[in-house]
Each structure stands twice: as structure tokens, then as C-alpha cells.
Amino acid sequence: MRTDFPQNFHTKRLYQDIAIGIANDIKHGKYRVGDRLPNERKMAQITGVSRSVVREALLALEVAGIISIQVGSGAYVKHISYDLISILHTLDMGPSPSDIIDTRIVFEGELAAKSALYADKDAKAHIADAFHYGMDNISLQKIDTHATDPDFKFHTAIAKSTDNALSVSLVIFLWKGIRMPLMQHLEKTAHIDAYGHESIGDHQRILQAIVDGDANNARHHMHAHLGKYKSYVLGAEQVRPAK
To answer: Which are the contacts of 125, defined by CB distance < 8 A and separation ≥ 6?
Structure first.
């Protein structure tokens, strides 16, 4: 029995289909340079998908330089490309951000719970070291999620504490997903670095639950932590850090 996937196998990305459809509408004159596109609600009705998918599609078009999104005003056609093949390649920006984060919420919540129940003293100390590394980065104002990755160290330390190599690989795979172009654009738009202190507070609660062997609280705090991240990057215009 064959167990390998064909080389061109990939998961269908709905937001890319919608983005390409909008790009085609622009290409064929439905929307012209300077025109404002229908709002998210109307676009969702037109395309038959959720507003979150429409939002991701519009962000992909913005990253590609085809539209410009102005907070409080709407999305405007910025550029018309007549090279559809180029558009198709440009819009290959990785998995859906909401899919990545939702998967992390479910998967990493269970990892945190398992860590609380089964991680040994040394593994928990390694998680604590990763937490303190993040604290040091905060105090030195070295918050740079793309270079130092203190968040990556903390989350992978939890995965490693479960003594499951596949879990570690999956956490790394999901982390790579949030370093794809569309996710990076979302983080930049949300000014995600401004939430560094709040993230460290979340990490502290997760760590304490793991050290205490409290699986339910470890799961709960991980869900809350990643749920906040989702609200920040997918609803940046509505959610801002407390002053």
C-alpha cells in the first residue's frame, strides 16, 4: 500500500480561492484602481464564506500589493495585474491563519495538560528556564518574535516535556506556519510586540499550573493565551493592549 503523498499534494486554502476570485474581478474590470471593495459583511454574502475567510483573503491581496486596507474606511484597489500566474504564485502565503491558531489552541492545550501530569522535575525546570528567558527579553526590551523567539522556546519546551518527538515536530511545524507571509503581516498590523508583557503573564500562569501538576488549569491557561493571540492578530482594529 502506498503511504506517500504525491508531490503536488496540498491542503486547499479557502482564503486563497477567495483572494484569487477578487483578483480576477479586478483584472476583468469589475473593480478599478481607486475603487472601494464591498465591506467584509457584503463580501462574505457575495462569496458565501465567513467574514474571517474574507478578512484573510483581503489581507493576502494587501500583502500582494493589489489592494490597500485603510482602517475605518475600507479596502481600495491599488494595483491591477494582468499576469494571473504571477498572482497565483504571489498569493501562496501559507495555511489559513485562523486554522493555524485554532489547531494550536486544541493541540497545545492538551500538551500543557499532559506536561502537568507526566513531565518530570528536569523537564519542568527546562520550561521554567524558557519562561525566564522570555522574562529577560522583556526586561532588556528585546521583544522580537522573528529573531529571538522566546515564545517559541517556551512552547517547544512544553512539547519536549511530554517526551513525544512527534508532538515536538508538530509544534515546530505550527510555529513555522505563523512565520508565513500572511501571519507576519497580521502580526505587524496588530503590533503584536506590544503584548509582550501580557504574553509573559500568560506563560507564568501556564508554567505554575504545570509545576503544580494541575492539568485542567494548564489546559485552561494555554487556551486563554492562544485565544488572546487569535483575537489580537485576527481582530487587530478592535483589540488593543491596556495602557
So the answer is: none
